[in-house]
Design goal:
Layout: H1 60-69
């Protein structure tokens, strides 16, 4: 899935979105929300109490590649 994301600051109460040709005649979802609601005000979690708790057996890099390949 390809996504089109635009960060804009409307000045007159309306916006115009130019739709790429590959989106023509397709059903689209449009979501509008202020940037502040994207989680910029969240407090970062302190993970220091978890240090050394995970005992990983296996190749972490190989697992990461498998997860990445799922999205292709």
């Amino acid at each position: 899935m390809q996504a089109l994301r635009q960060l804009i600051k409307p000045t007159n109460g309306s916006i115009t979105i130019a739709i790429p040709e590959e989106y023509a005649n397709k059903e689209l979802e449009v979501t509008i929300r202020p940037i502040a609601s994207l989680g910029n005000n969240k407090k970062n979690y302190d993970f220091s109490d978890l240090i050394g708790k995970l005992q990983w057996k296996g190749d972490a890099l190989e697992e990461q590649k498998k997860l990445r390949d799922e999205w292709e």
